């Protein structure tokens, strides 16, 4: 869209009489039990938030059980084995099923409206991510009722979680269940990255983007690069438990420390993955409650990016007592200090904004002030544990438990509750009770500090964490009882909040919802299931403050997409930097296929855990079929070459190649893929460097002829798929599928040659860890070949049906991306395996 075109907005032309009716019809959500098939962000977001809060309550109940056990010395309320299960499930549910999902849930619900979009660009992916999380999470939690919950701690350190020490199914449920749930989180992250970068309102450049969108963009990118490490770790540990591949068994060349590296490379960035979205919410609320623009917008955005970057250097922070080298500990200590600087920048910005403005002492403000107090204390103790000598004293004591909860509850739970009070009117137009809010905040703030501040002292007095009881003559009795009382007071405040929230949900919807806080951002425009009536042109960071007439103009349909052009759901795709309109995107509608795919995926993983292989395979096949049908339905031909998205402004319908949002989503997915591969390579290098001889005695590599031939075939396959893309670009549709099949034959032959060469040398993964890591790399490449086979046949089916055209080629473009990546990964894997012994 040119500058002259944008000057035509807002339009004063009369709108067609049935325009709003057609828009409402296209976006009307299903009713009754059919709501489970909804894919719109407003529906899925509410499901997501409600489920995350359910897990918050369940994990909180487990926490209260732990505090009841520790209230008195020598307590026998729970046996040691039961306590270990409760302790493990409490940490796991809080970290994996509440903390990360709730911030993704809030983002799914809020971001489209905040960015001025109709919906996120892959609504069915959002639905799949939610149902995978909900079904898998509930099934995982129910293991506690059958006595098969994991009991190795939420960090699952081997060798305690190996088959010898944990022979039951608990560890397997954790490894398969949590690994699968992390895949759900990654799917949500990809959706958010593409949505934030490519579906903003016209004119909303990166410099005008709401800080919460910045926070979620950084968070989603952190998920892309951090979560693959835990996926790789859970994969290796499950392979060890299932097939006796000794990745972490020291007697056969493995190393338990390898798990700690993989886990904490995910685990410490996760702390900031939890905190940054909460910080983004705080940055949205503080200016509104202070009635003044944010102080230091650019500094806050820079700080968000800096925290995300530095957090990846802090994982060894959790391994100061693991016997690592001095240089590694020094780097981690410096990073632990450095990450406090950008975090402090944000705190000073919030304080300055409050100081500059006239603060409304309403419910969100109470929780914001409580957050400041608690989080700053947590940050100070974080700096303390970055000091090596101090860390050696308090590591694995209750001081660390106190620090963890001050950072996570203070840094995330209090901002999230502030957000619930702040954004509650978006649900049905009503505020939560101000009178009850004071009680909720008072109980939660008092109870929290009463529960967790004494733990600093018990930790300094020597109380170790993860113990189910203690002797009565150690001086910890009173402090532990105080912590238990505080925990129950905190829980009472949460219970009172839920009473008020349930009351709010059942109130009749108030239309229009209004803007009770006088906020400045787009989510406070009058909203429906389709978002705002028309997508506005943005010219500032605080559009509702700088343009008081914007609400009336949007409601009157004076901007972009005041109706539906195709009769379906639509939104605009804009440029990633400046927010210039690029093309019209027709969105898929409600469907049961994401639900079926998620249920099948969850069934596959969970049923494998209990050795129900046949049913598990059936569930896996059902999931694959559902995904193929869902993709086939979504991959529609454009209804026109161009469409009038505003009066006198025309945009192309759909796009392909680098102009397509789906192409960039595949690029992000390949970043995830490459991160998993890098984690597996790290495991191989770690084991190789730890071995006295590489390869170890009894292991060997095939002659160079095998990998060279395999590499040549991989390159030939990539050349064939590139040729298929070139032919389609020139309009020669009939020549595409033969080249795709040729490429598939090449990659299958390459994988077979590489694997057969290792088989001839007698590769035995159970013999030693080095052989196991080689087998893991081969298996990972084999998995990609299987995926390529499915995608290649899908492309052929599109070609045979006449649906693969130069203007509708996303399936081929995305398949080609994965194909070239798999070639590069195969070449890198063979090179590393064969060159590592040389170096």
What's the quaternary structure here? single chain
Order of helices and strands: HHHHHHHHHHHHHHHHHHHEEHHEEHHHHH
Largest sheet, strands/sense/barrel: 2 strands, antiparallel
Strand order of the largest sheet: 1-2
Radius of gyration: 27 Å
Low-confidence stretches: 1-6
Distance between the first and last residues' Cα: 55 Å
Shape: globular
- The number of distinct β-strands equals 4
For the residues shown, what is the average pLDDT?
93
| β-sheet strand percentage | under 5%
Number of helices: 26
**Relative helix content:** 55-70%
Return the structural class. Answer: mainly alpha
Q: Can you tell me about this structure?
A:
The protein has 839 residues and is mostly helical. The chain is 65% helix and 3% strand. It has 26 helices and 4 strands. A two-stranded antiparallel sheet has the order 1-2. A hairpin with a 6-residue loop joins strand 1 and strand 2. Helix 3 packs antiparallel against helix 17 and helix 8 packs parallel to helix 14. The longest helix is centred in the N-terminal third of the chain and has 36 residues. The N terminus is likely disordered.
């Amino acid at each position: 869209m040119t500058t002259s075109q944008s000057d035509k907005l807002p339009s004063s032309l009369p709108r067609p009489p049935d325009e709003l009716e057609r828009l409402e019809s296209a976006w009307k959500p299903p009713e009754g039990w059919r709501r489970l098939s909804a894919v719109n962000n407003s529906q899925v977001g509410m499901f997501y938030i409600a489920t995350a809060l359910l897990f918050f309550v369940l994990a909180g109940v487990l926490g209260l059980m732990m505090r009841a056990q520790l209230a008195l010395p020598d307590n026998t309320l729970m046996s040691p084995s039961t306590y270990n299960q409760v302790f493990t499930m409490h940490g796991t549910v809080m970290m994996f099923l509440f903390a990360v999902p709730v911030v993704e849930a809030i983002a799914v619900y809020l971001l489209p409206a905040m960015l001025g979009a109709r919906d996120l660009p892959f609504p069915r992916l959002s639905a799949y991510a939610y149902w995978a999380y909900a079904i898998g999470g509930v099934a995982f939690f129910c293991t506690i009722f059958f006595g098969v919950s994991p009991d190795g701690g939420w960090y699952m350190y081997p060798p305690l979680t190996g088959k010898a020490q944990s022979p039951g199914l608990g560890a397997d449920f954790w490894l398969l269940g949590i690994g699968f749930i992390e895949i759900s989180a990654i799917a949500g992250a990809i959706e958010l990255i593409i949505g934030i970068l490519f579906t903003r309102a016209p004119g909303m450049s990166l410099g005008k983007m709401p800080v919460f969108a910045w926070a979620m963009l950084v968070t989603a990118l952190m998920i892309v690069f951090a979560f693959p490490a835990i996926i790789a770790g859970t994969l290796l540990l499950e392979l060890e438990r299932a097939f006796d591949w000794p990745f972490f068994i020291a007697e056969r060349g493995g190393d338990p420390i390898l798990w700690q590296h993989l886990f904490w490379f995910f685990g410490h960035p996760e702390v900031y993955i939890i905190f940054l979205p909460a910080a983004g919410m705080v940055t949205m609320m503080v200016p509104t409650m202070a009635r003044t623009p944010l102080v230091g917008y650019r500094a806050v955005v820079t700080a968000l990016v800096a925290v995300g970057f530095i957090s990846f250097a802090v994982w060894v922070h959790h391994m100061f007592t693991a016997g690592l080298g001095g240089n590694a500990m020094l780097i981690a200590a410096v990073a632990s200090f450095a990450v406090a600087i950008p975090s402090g920048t944000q705190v000073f910005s919030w304080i300055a904004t409050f100081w500059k403005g006239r603060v409304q002492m309403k419910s969100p403000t109470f929780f914001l002030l409580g957050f400041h107090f608690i989080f700053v204390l947590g940050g100070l103790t974080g700096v303390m544990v970055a000091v090596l000598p101090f860390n050696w004293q308090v590591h694995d004591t209750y001081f660390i438990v106190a620090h963890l909860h001050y950072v996570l509850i203070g840094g995330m739970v209090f901002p999230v509750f502030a957000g619930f009070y702040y954004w509650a009117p978006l649900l049905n137009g009503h505020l939560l009770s101000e009178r009850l809010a004071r009680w909720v905040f008072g109980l939660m703030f008092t109870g929290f500090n009463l529960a967790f501040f004494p733990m600093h002292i018990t930790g300094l007095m020597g109380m170790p964490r993860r113990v189910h009881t203690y002797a009565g003559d150690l001086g910890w009795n009173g402090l532990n009882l105080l912590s238990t009382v505080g925990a129950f007071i905190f829980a009472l405040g949460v219970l009172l909040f839920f009473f008020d929230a349930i009351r709010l949900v059942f109130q009749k919807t108030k239309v229009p919802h209004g803007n009770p806080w006088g906020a400045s951002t787009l989510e406070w425009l009058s909203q429906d299931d389709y978002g705002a009536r028309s997508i506005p042109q943005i010219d500032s960071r605080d559009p509702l403050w700088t343009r008081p007439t914007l609400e009336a103009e949007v409601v009157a349909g004076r901007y972009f997409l005041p109706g539906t052009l195709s009769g379906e759901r639509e939104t605009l795709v804009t440029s990633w930097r400046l927010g210039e309109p690029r093309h019209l995107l027709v969105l898929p509608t409600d469907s049961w296929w994401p639900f079926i795919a998620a249920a099948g995926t969850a069934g596959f993983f969970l049923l494998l855990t209990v050795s129900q292989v046949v049913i598990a395979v059936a569930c896996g096949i059902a999931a694959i079929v559902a995904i193929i049908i869902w993709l086939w339905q979504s991959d529609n031909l454009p209804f026109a070459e161009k469409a009038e998205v505003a009066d006198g402004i025309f945009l192309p319908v759909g796009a392909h190649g680098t102009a397509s949002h789906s192409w960039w989503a595949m690029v992000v997915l390949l970043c995830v893929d490459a991160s998993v591969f890098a984690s597996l390579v790290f495991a191989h290098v770690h084991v190789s460097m730890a071995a006295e001889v590489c390869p170890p005695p009894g292991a060997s590599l095939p002659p160079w002829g095998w990998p060279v031939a395999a590499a040549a075939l991989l390159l030939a396959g990539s050349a064939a798929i590139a040729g298929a893309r070139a032919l389609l670009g020139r309009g020669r549709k009939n020549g595409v599928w033969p080249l795709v099949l040729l490429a598939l034959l090449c990659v299958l032959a390459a994988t077979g040659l590489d694997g057969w060469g290792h088989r001839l040398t007698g590769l035995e993964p159970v013999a030693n860890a080095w052989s196991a890591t080689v087998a893991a790399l081969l298996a990972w490449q084999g998995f990609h070949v299987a995926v390529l086979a499915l995608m290649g046949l899908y492309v052929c089916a599109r070609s045979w049906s006449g649906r693969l055209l130069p203007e509708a080629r996303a399936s081929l473009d995305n398949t080609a991306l994965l194909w070239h990546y798999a070639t590069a990964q195969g070449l890198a894997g063979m090179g590393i395996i064969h060159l590592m012994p040389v170096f």
